[in-house]
Amino acid sequence: MALFGTGMGRVCAVVAATDAADMSRQLRAALRSTPTVELRLDWLKNDAERGLFLRRLRKFSPAKAMLLATCRRREGGGKFAGDVDGELYWLMQAHEAGCEWCDLEMETYRELPQGITRELPLPRRILLSIHDFERTPKLPRTVSVTRHGLVDAVKIAAKARTIADSVRLLKVARRSRGFVAVPMGDVGLPARILALREGSALAYAPVEEATAPGQVSLDEMLHLYRVHQLTRATRVYGVIGDPIGHSLSPLLHNTGFAAGRIDAVYLPFLVHDLRDFLRAILDLGVRGFSVTLPHKQTILKYLKECDPLAAEIGAVNTVVVRRDGSLHGSNTDYVGVLQALEEKLPIKNSRMLIFGAGGAARATAFALARAGAFVGICARREKAAKELARAVGGEVIPRRALSRESFDAILNATPIGMHPHQGISPLRAGELQCRVVMDLIYRPERTKLLKMAAQEGIATVSGVEMFLAQGFAQWEIWTGKRAPEAAMRQAVLAALRWRS
Ligand code: NAP
């Protein structure tokens, strides 16, 4: 028998607001998605608001809802300023108002005489919670609540400083019953998403404001990551980078998996230390991953096999994990840039200028040179420009020559003009002596550079086209199927337009 619920009911919406009206509004919103809801009574700004909210709840008495009341004291990491008696008073009131569960933090539990929790008129079921907001402590091998029967479930919420920390917590969930695993912090986010499939009895997600670090919103939990549908058979993919929070790749790939009816999920891994992630691959069941800054070059030394072109470029953005855990790398940025540009002009025998000489410039230069274009490199560091020009048989073009020389296309491969600095352009209008301007930046979709080029009557290509094409290619490498491009494109464009 499932402890908290089944299906979406295993995802607990966290309702937390400072006044009763807002709590009630959030509760109604939460119940549209899941019947399981935690009511953070400690977030309400005073006892008057707590009383008001619980009186409303009693009248409202939502049918089929599974309500869990929490009135966490400051000692336990909550906002309730009262003492243990105050906390118990509000939990008993919550019972009266229809809450079936309550959360009792270890700091409170320890202060109570043994067995008293079963004598007090608290909500019928008790979740004992243990929090560590600093680290993941030493953990028990397994947690069993049936042995003494004083509580009905145990939760450990602990900050994951490393991916290995979050894996340790998931392993406890795998071996236990009546256990809720909550890896906290941005590094723990993928494990938080995988917790249900690893055996955690519950996953938490805020309806609005985050109540703990590294939370994923209720909407994303249910609709982007579909956590309630993940099983041990679900294939895990992801993107590794630092930072990673801004990435649109989870939206792109998860939309593709849903549209293509593939039992897979794609997660954002904040990776400070590549070895920490690589050691967790088999435990988490990772079958492939995208690589972004700053790991695109470093990953090469951990590969068993590398596509020769990616090796020549010196950067890998796509990795396949074989069953034995060995890694096979390739580079789809290369494909992405060609597909995006080919829509506007034939590349063979064309004259191209790349502005910048970093990782993306390198993939672009190899792609264009291989496709038969002349490649000019203009970069602020002459040494970097020279090295790249030499590697692809191109030439260095000094900045001062840009207003005189003409090209078929100019490509920006620097981050100048990227969100949140979208008001600036890497080049001046007079330097755009070309038929096509492509900006590799994809956020915003239309950069200042592209707007300027359009005003000059020059055709433009957004970095979104490259982002989509490299992503479609990755998706096809991992699944062996044609990517559902229309659905993936629509999701990414909608997100970009909504965010800008
Ligand atoms: P990177 O390796 O850090 O290279 C950045 C390049 O830009 C370097 O040559 C750097 O010069 C130059 N640069 C940075 N700031 C500059 C400034 N103020 N003035 C002149 N040059 C400057 O980064 P990357 O991976 O190549 O990424 C570059 C851009 O491409 C990013 O905006 C990224 O989002 C985008 N990108 C898009 C896609 C896509 O799918 N659309 C794929 C990959 C990358 P120094 O070496 O002198 O610092």
Keywords:
single chain; binds NADP nicotinamide-adenine-dinucleotide phosphate; 500 residues; 16 helices; Rossmann fold; TIM Barrel; six-stranded mixed sheet
Structure description:
The protein is of the alpha/beta class and 500 residues long. The protein has three domains: 7-232, TIM Barrel; 237-331, Rossmann fold (3-Layer(aba) Sandwich); 334-461, NAD(P)-binding Rossmann-like Domain (Rossmann fold). It is 34% helix and 20% strand. It contains 16 helices and 20 strands. The strands form three sheets. The chain has an eight-stranded parallel β-sheet with strand order 7-6-5-4-3-2-1-8. Strands 10-9-11-13-14-12 form a six-stranded mixed β-sheet, sandwiched between helices. The chain has a six-stranded parallel β-sheet with strand order 17-16-15-18-19-20, sandwiched between helices. α4 (106-109) links the parallel β4 and β5 (125-132). The mean pLDDT is 95.
Quick take:
The protein is α/β, with parallel strands linked by helices and 500 residues long.
Outline the fold blueprint:
Elements: E1 11-15, H1 20-31, E2 36-40, H2 47-60, E3 66-70, H3 84-96, E4 101-105, H4 106-109, E5 125-132, E6 153-159, H5 163-175, E7 179-184, H6 189-194, E8 203-206, H7 218-224, E9 235-241, H8 249-259, E10 264-270, H9 274-284, E11 286-291, E12 305-306, H10 308-313, E13 318-321, E14 327-330, H11 333-342, E15 351-355, H12 359-370, E16 374-378, H13 382-391, E17 395-396, E18 407-412, E19 434-439, H14 448-455, E20 459-461, H15 463-479, H16 485-499
Parallel strand pairs: 1-2, 1-8, 2-3, 3-4, 4-5, 5-6, 6-7, 9-10, 9-11, 12-14, 15-16, 15-18, 16-17, 18-19, 19-20
Antiparallel strand pairs: 11-13, 13-14
Helix pairs in contact: 1-2, 2-3, 8-15, 8-16, 11-12, 11-15
Bound molecules: NADP nicotinamide-adenine-dinucleotide phosphate.
